[in-house]
Write a structure and sequence with these properties.
317 residues, mainly alpha, MetI-like fold, 12 helices, globular
C-alpha cells in the first residue's frame, strides 16, 4: 500500500501540471478581461489608461509568459494578487476555506447518516411501504434542482414557520454555538440532498446482494440476531462500493457549495468564486479552481485507499 501511495503521489505532479495548463488557458480564453469593467462604464476612458492598467496587472504579456510567471510563483505558494481587492489570493482562500470545509463536513455527515439509515432499512424491508417511499424520495432528491430546493426551504422554515435563519452564519448580536448551528442546518441540508438520494440507492442495491450471500445465511443459521447479521456482517461488505463512491463525491460537495453558499450568503469559497467571476478576477478564479481540482485528485486517491482497506482481497503492492 505504501508503494502504491507514493507512486500515485508522484503521478499527481504531471497531472496537476496539465490541469493548471488547461485552467489557465480556459480563463485566458474567456471573453473580456480585467479591464472590461472599466469599458462597461458610460464615461470615456483614455486607451493609454487602459494599457497602463493592463501593464500593472501583468495581463499585457503573452499567455505563455503569464503562465510561466504564475506557475513559478504558485510553486512557492504565491497564487498572485486579487485584481478586485489587491490582497494575496492565498490569504483570501485561507480566510474563506474554514467556512466551506465546515459546510462540506456537516453536509457529508448528514448525508452519510441519512443515506445509511435509508439504504439499510429499504434493503431489509424490500418492497414495503417504507421502501417505496424511500425510493420515491430518492428519485425526487436526484431530480430536484438545488437552487429551487434551497428557496423552498428558506420560504417554509425561514419565512412561514420562522424556525431557522435563512442567511449568514450568525445572528447580529448573538455569537453562541447554538445560533451558529441553526444557521448551518438549511445550507447543509440543501448541499446533502443529492448525495443522500444517490448513496442510499447504492447502499440498498449492495445490501440486497449481500443479504442473499452464503455467509449471511450461515450467520443466521448460527443463531445470531438479525441486528448483528445486518449491521455487523452484511453492512461491512455492502459498504465497500458505497464508500468508494462517497469518497469520489467529496469533491462534488466543494463544487456544490458554489450555489449553496451564494443562496444562503455563507461566507465561504463558493460565494467568493461567484463574486470573482462577475469581477473577472483571474488570479482569484485560478486559485479557487486549482484548489477544487486538487480536491478531486486527492479524493480519488482517498477512494482507492479506503477501497483497499475495506476489502482485504485488494492488493496494490
Amino acid at each position: 500500500m505504501t508503494t502504491y501511495i507514493v507512486r500515485r503521489l508522484l503521478q499527481m505532479i504531471p497531472l496537476m501540471l496539465g490541469i493548471t495548463v488547461v485552467l489557465f488557458g480556459v480563463i485566458q480564453a474567456a471573453p473580456g478581461g480585467p479591464e472590461a469593467a472599466l469599458l462597461e462604464s458610460d464615461r470615456f476612458i483614455d486607451p493609454a489608461v487602459i494599457e497602463a492598467y493592463r501593464a500593472r496587472l501583468g495581463v499585457d504579456q503573452p499567455v505563455p509568459v503569464q503562465y510561466a510567471r504564475w506557475l513559478g510563483a504558485a510553486v512557492r505558494g504565491d497564487l498572485g494578487v486579487s485584481f478586485s481587492t489587491t490582497r494575496p489570493v492565498t490569504e483570501m482562500i485561507v480566510e474563506r476555506l474554514p467556512a466551506t470545509l465546515e459546510l462540506m463536513g456537516a453536509s457529508f455527515l448528514m448525508a452519510a447518516v441519512l443515506a445509511f439509515l435509508l439504504g439499510v432499512f429499504s434493503a431489509v424491508r424490500q418492497y414495503s411501504a417504507f421502501d417505496h417511499v424511500g425510493t420515491g424520495l430518492s428519485f425526487l432528491g436526484i431530480a430536484m434542482p438545488v437552487f429551487w430546493f434551497a428557496l423552498i426551504l428558506q420560504l417554509v422554515f425561514g419565512v412561514w414557520l420562522g424556525w431557522l435563519p435563512v442567511a449568514g452564519t450568525a445572528t447580529i448580536g448573538a455569537s453562541s454555538l447554538g445560533d451558529h448551528l441553526l444557521h448551518l442546518i438549511l445550507p447543509a441540508s440543501v448541499l446533502s440532498l443529492r448525495y443522500v438520494a444517490g448513496w442510499s440507492r447504492y447502499l440498498r442495491s449492495s445490501m440486497l446482494e449481500i443479504l442473499r450471500a452464503d455467509f449471511v445465511r450461515t450467520a443466521r443459521a448460527k443463531g445470531l440476531s438479525e441486528g448483528v447479521v445486518v449491521w455487523g456482517h452484511a453492512l461491512r461488505n455492502a459498504m465497500i462500493p458505497v464508500v468508494s463512491v462517497m469518497a469520489l463525491n467529496l469533491a462534488g460537495l466543494f463544487s456544490g457549495a458554489v450555489i449553496t453558499e451564494t443562496i444562503f450568503a455563507w461566507p465561504g469559497i463558493g460565494r467568493m468564486f461567484v463574486q470573482a467571476m462577475f469581477s473577472r478576477d483571474y488570479p482569484l478564479l485560478m486559485g479557487i479552481l486549482l484548489l477544487g481540482s486538487s480536491m478531486v485528485v486527492v479524493f480519488n486517491l482517498l477512494a482507492d485507499i479506503v477501497y483497499g482497506l475495506l476489502d482485504p482481497r485488494i492488493r496494490y503492492d
